[in-house]
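Subject: Sanity check before I submit

Could someone independently write out the structure tokens for this chain? I want to compare against mine line by line before I put it in a report. The sequence has 560 residues.
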Amino acid sequence: MDFDQILEKCGSAGRYQYLMILLLGYIAFTTTVHYYSQNIIGFVPQHWCYHEALENRSFEEIAAIYAPFGKEASCTRLDKIEGDRVTVSNETCQRWIYNYDFGFRSMNAELNWVCNDAYKARIGQSLFFLGSLMGTFTFGVLGDRIGRVRAVILANQCGFVGDFLTTYASNLVQFAIFRCISGLAATANYYLMFILVLEYLAPKLRNMAISGTLGICFCLGALVAPWLSVLAGNWRIYLTCSALLQLVVALFYFVVQESAQWLITRTNVEGAIARLKHIAHFNGMEVKAADFEAFRRNCIVKRKLSNQPEQTAGIFDLLRTPNLRKVSLLVVFTFMLTSLSFNTISRNVEGMGLSPFVVFSLFAVVVPPSGFIQGLLQSRVGRKATAFLAMLCTGLLSCALGVALSTEGAQKNVTLLLAFALPMRLGISMCYTVTSQFASELLPTCVRSRGIAAVHLAAAGASFVSPYLIHLGTKLAAAPSLILALLLLTASGCTLMLPETNNRQLPITLADGEAFGKGESMLSFDCWRRHDDDVSKEATEEVRLHQLNGQTKSETEAEV
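---
Independent answer below. Compare away.
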């Protein structure tokens, strides 16, 4: 009796699984608020250099006075203002007048990190992503060493500590250090929980249930993040709220069971059985002792069949065998391209002629539909076809936007920009979520946490280019969209070379990973496959398992 069979008896779609999906939804919500906090606290409101003659003027009058200076208006200091005639001062501006968007006082405005000091906020952002790189790797290793649950809790507590300390930052050094600590949780706080939930779910819940829940919770997070900051009115209060949301995750320790699959790879079969018994009790299922004994013998047999003890398996073992090496490298490369595209599209909320708070909200509204569309497509055509179609369509939309932006009139057309931006946001959300799930399913359980850590580490490295890609749009408006089109179309081609995972038993050992999807063609979509094929493919292994199972049982009886 393998893991999927014993999990079915304990309940693979019961109360515990739905509780786990809800907790994953909470993690998705807090992750979104935490992720976008870096953008929100750094919003730069409309501003002009202070002059005593402007104190009693409206913002419209001030904007009209500075209008002749164009893009340099925000940093131009005036010497004299006499009616419509102004003279420019040679001195550097030291004080500004801010037109706060919805009354929100951002960090840049409070610390006057604008004009010549605008680079300071970008340093903090860079350190945030540096922390993300370190946290992704560190917590990925910890996830395979100390367990998924503890790693999830530690990652979120780093986010809590970093955000809370940032509220006391008053200079660049403090801000950079605290944002680096906060960044440790930027990716790890989500993907570790995703892995943990995935390892306890029935295949039927991996499509609509996960996709729909994530779509709703990502949407709520993206909606709450900007308007929570408006409600708070100040970036320090907003970050405090973000920190407290992550502190709650510490309570997961008393609710969430450690991954039974991970415990098996650590040769702790009894620990895995104890977790499964708890889940069976929670789900109201009665499981016979003989079933657990059959599962115990199956784990022993699987360990004998494996050429390498899974407890000592490392991330570089993914590269030792040809099929697993090909799949692992394709997963890394595809997720790098998808993550870079996702960060560029989702974070590009300024320069559209609307308030960034409004654009954030509009982007959030399209996330739930993307989750439900993804869930439906995965159920009908499989994981591979869904990823391919999402990347292909989003890439073609990006290409069309690039062509449109090559004309100067389109660059100032708010309706046209939103007509392309919203479907692209929907598509890239599908691309990112399905690729993240796809990657988690393809890598074996014994190195899944470290493997996904390496995948997200590479993706975070690629995402460093995202701010520069967005900035390129100020010089060449069409360039970012055309580059994104190339990235997404390349990723769609890479997806075709990956095996399907929908309705398949996921690999646990390295041997499982090497055999998984071997011999599949590029067009082997789940919707074109006969679902009884898996039975014939696993017949030989089942015979070997039964043979060894009988041998193990005989050895056990002889010892007694």
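---
OP: Matches mine. For the report I'm noting this point. Residues 532-549, 551-560 have pLDDT under 50 and may be disordered.
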